[in-house]
Write a structure and sequence with these properties.
430 residues, mainly alpha, ABC transporter involved in vitamin B12 uptake, BtuC, two-stranded antiparallel ribbon, 18 helices, 73% helix, 2% strand, globular
Amino acid sequence: MSTDVTKSQGEPGGAAHDGAAPAAVPATDPRLLVREQGLAGYWADFTRRMRSGELGSVPVVVGLAVIWLVFWLLDDKFLSAQNLSNLSVYVVGTGLISVGVVFVLLLGEIDLSVGSVSGLAGAVFAVLAVNEGVPEWLALVAALLTGCLAGVVHGFFFARVGVPAFVVTLAGLLFWNGLMLQVLASDGTINLRDGGLVRQMTSYYFTDVAAAYGLALIAVLGYFTAQWHEHRRRTAAQVPARPVNEIVVRTAVLAALAFAAAYMLNQYRGLPLALLVFLAVLVAFDFLLRRTGYGRRVFALGGNTEAARRAGINVAAVRISVFALAGTLAAFGGLLIASRIAAANQGAGSGVLLMEAIAAAVIGGTSLFGGRGTVWSALLGMLVIGSISNGLALLGSPSHVQYMITGAVLLAAVVIDSVSRRTQRTAGRT
């Protein structure tokens, strides 16, 4: 570099000859070079990312494909339209709870109370709507506010008082579970009204084939529009942008998956309302996390709390809001679980629910160390856990086998995350 500069200033024809300053030569963004090389460039970039530990969602997608293939070979009913439709409804309740867990994990913290909060929300709704005759929509709002309030309490003691999140939410696990038992009192189990608002969340299906195909079309058009807008915006700002041909290919892949899923759902009973609600929540919170200043603050806190504080971020407010969000989504998930079993009972929120919600987020790709993950981790992780549970049930395997396999998958996900982080540090990418 120094030789070139000397030459331009001292030799005839150089920049110093006419007194003009030498023109700066802009560095070429390596992402542009990759895209100019076509398929070979993308493959080279993919292998580079894998070697440097940037695995993304590749492990869970590959794992899910292997799980589906194995269970399909063992029992061809696994990939039937009815079974896949039932699976899509099964994952919704715990999946919604897991979305809230993703936000907490992004802070590098943990929330052990979400199972108990979900059970409490179901109990509050059932007592108000069934026993007290309160309109269902009002009882639903009260249940969600109950979850939100529980999250605010956790966040306050963690962010303002300084009690570790593990201890606060462990106390919450016990307290909210006890409060749920108190709310249900001697009733024990309260059956939800058939045809009611909450009951229909998991029992209602859009039987018209146009519903599933319409949702697929909206998803594809929405994705293409968002990517095209991003392309134009980045091009106008003269920064690297995804080429149009890549956008088209990505949209085509999404279209193939979306319309295949719509076709399978229409082979049974149509589009489940529960799945529609879950996808809407995922899209909304994905936008919140990746496209808003609030989401950037959450990632900043997970990456380095002290740096975020010095950058002017209100650390306490963000932490409290994240736990409030987790509590609200836990309540929403609890309502969906109550809807699926058509009742609120004293066993709600207990058992493996908490572990499945946390495991789904981690298996789906959210880091336990904070600062890395997406809300789609909840969907991918729940598909893995739900597929294992569903497949083993079809094969008649006992529940303890499911626990052992799910535990092994969770351990594998954490090991992959740890190795990935170590590899990225070695490669100088963190």
